[in-house]
Design a protein that fits this description.
Length: 538
């Protein structure tokens, strides 16, 4: 055993995850990998996912299961893989070379330094592990591996986690990229000692290699993977089970809260997926908040959105307002330095997990990611869009105080802004406006659109996060009156869930405002009416 070869360190890391309060068993992926071992042209796979989707956890699991010299049966005997036919055949029966490619020397200025660092770590372990073979630390790595194979017959499983880290490094160059891909090719391609090569990363291989360097890999990339899609990210069922466990442990997290904040990604079949990192942190801390880290290429992408806003300005506004955008995903940009078209920006944001993609539509996945886009909208570089977001605080205040003149003034400003979706071409556009002018209200409210209520569907219901705050029921009308909107709310009883009945008397559970909002196309005027629900009840 060593640092790289048959590493006990990875078993320790996986055991720590296994012992964690909110471990989810994804071990059935091993059955799929077992079926690939040693099969020519089938034993090379690359799985790409956004950060925080459990790629490193999975590499630790895979290494711990296969690696010789380890005794991991006490863990795996309790997992789902133990019920599969191939389980015992492969348990701790293979030589595993596992590399975390995001590691680099403390001082690293070029690709030669980077490759030498990883190559020497492997050679040292091989020299220790196969002392009967005549290995030298100065020989080429692939020569050493072939020497071992021909001398002993021993073969290897290669696990490369975050294989594309070099492409995001400060010392990335096109020449360095070619050298790196050639290095991987020399280690892996058409080598008799390779039993299985498993790589993970963020962006697909095809973005880096249009030639033959590492075209041996079959890629399973987010969000088009139909084989491994449920092994990365938590499914709805898994999150519900974790939420129940949280309650058993004395926690107070509700599934609906997790769904609002962290839901929104999809498998190839449309099953919802959650970001594991955020779910784990929320349940461990017993706190719902933004756990998305502010470092890495993802942050750069949001900066690029600000710098290239004209290409995606309307898309961002629609998505922030809760709409989905049709966007056939055709190709991926290589890096994040030269994103200058709509296709470039949106496709990379999908791959990095900032946007959700399913059935040719993209959207902002959840409340956690929405906070990032709100920051972008409020940045001064966004011009009038930033002013639009800033007005949302004034709009909420005006609504709560019943200042309909101010509400109408803000609506006029928004309507006069030169953005196509704000021209009220249909009622759906009017709904987009409401989401935008109440953008910051999401800090205090869970805002539900087309909410089932009473005898129909309310256009909007604002549920306060603090139960003592005022709730809002809002109905929209085009070429009609706000008074008619109020009548519809009362006639269809959208307010029912806010009522309580005691001793035959009906009262409101809390303060509730009933808001009617209308736009008359002929006059170009907006009108608003705000009433207190309790004053309208019979």
């Amino acid at each position: 055993m060593g640092n790289i070869l048959n590493s006990e360190g990875q078993l320790r890391l996986f055991y720590g995850r296994y012992e964690g309060s909110y471990f989810v068993d994804k071990s059935e992926i091993l059955e799929k990998l077992n079926n690939l071992i040693g099969k020519v042209d089938e034993q090379y796979i690359c799985i790409t996912r956004p950060r925080r989707f459990g790629k490193t956890v999975m590499t630790n699991l895979i290494s711990s299961y296969y690696a010789k010299g380890l005794d991991s049966a006490t863990i795996f005997d309790t997992l789902k893989i133990a019920n599969k036919p191939s389980y015992r055949k492969h348990l701790n029966q293979h030589n595993v070379i596992s590399l975390y490619m995001a590691e680099q020397p403390r001082i690293c200025e070029d690709i030669d330094c980077y490759l030498s660092y990883h190559e020497k770590k492997i050679l040292k372990d091989l020299k220790r592990g196969f002392s009967d073979c005549e290995l030298d630390l100065d020989m080429e790595l692939w020569d050493a591996l072939e020497e071992i194979f021909y001398e002993t017959g021993e073969r290897f499983i290669f696990i490369l986690d975050e294989w594309d880290s070099f492409f995001h490094s400060d010392f990335f160059t096109e020449a360095g990229a070619k050298k790196y891909l050639t290095f991987l090719k020399n280690i892996l391609k058409d080598k008799p000692y390779v039993e299985l090569a498993y790589m993970t990363g963020v962006l697909p291989i095809k973005k880096y290699s249009s030639g033959s360097e590492i075209n041996i890999f079959k890629e399973y990339y987010f969000p088009m993977d139909t084989v491994y899609d449920t092994f990365f990210g938590f499914t709805e069922k898994e999150v519900q089970e974790l939420c129940h466990k949280n309650k058993v442990n004395g926690g107070t997290i509700q599934y609906e809260q997790l769904s609002e904040w962290y839901n929104g990604y999809y498998t190839s079949k449309g099953e919802r997926l959650y970001n594991p990192r955020s779910i784990n942190f929320a349940l461990t801390d017993n706190s719902i908040k933004d756990y998305w880290t502010e470092t890495g290429p993802g942050t750069e992408i949001l900066e690029l959105v600000k710098n290239n806003v004209d290409a995606v300005k309307e898309d961002i506004l629609k998505m922030v307002s809760g709409e989905k955008i049709q966007f056939p995903l055709r190709y991926f940009k290589t890096g994040v330095q030269k994103l200058d078209t709509r296709q470039d920006i949106l496709s990379v944001m999908i791959i990095y997990g900032f946007l959700s993609y399913y059935d040719t539509f993209v959207s902002i996945p959840n409340r956690e990611l929405m906070t990032k886009f709100e920051i972008v909208l409020e940045d001064s570089s966004m011009g009038y869009i930033a002013k639009l977001a800033q007005n949302s605080n004034k709009m909420l205040e005006a609504t709560l105080t019943g200042d309909t003149d101010k509400m109408e003034e803000i609506l006029e400003y928004v309507h006069n802004t030169e953005i196509p979706i704000l021209q009220y071409n249909d009622e759906n556009s009017l709904s987009c406006i409401v989401n935008l002018i109440y953008l910051n209200a999401r800090d205090k409210y869970r805002i539900e659109r087309e909410e089932k209520a009473g005898r129909g569907f309310a256009d909007f219901i604002f549920y306060p996060l603090n139960p003592s705050d005022t709730a809002i029921i809002l109905e929209l009308k085009k070429d009609d009156t706000p008074e008619h909107a109020i009548k519809q709310i009362m006639k269809r009883k959208y307010y029912t869930r806010f009522l309580t009945c005691k001793n035959g008397k009906t009262n409101c559970k809390q303060d509730v405002l009933v808001v009617g909002m209308a736009y008359d196309k002929a006059s170009g005027e907006h009108r608003c009416v705000v009433k207190v629900l309790e004053d309208l009840l019979p």
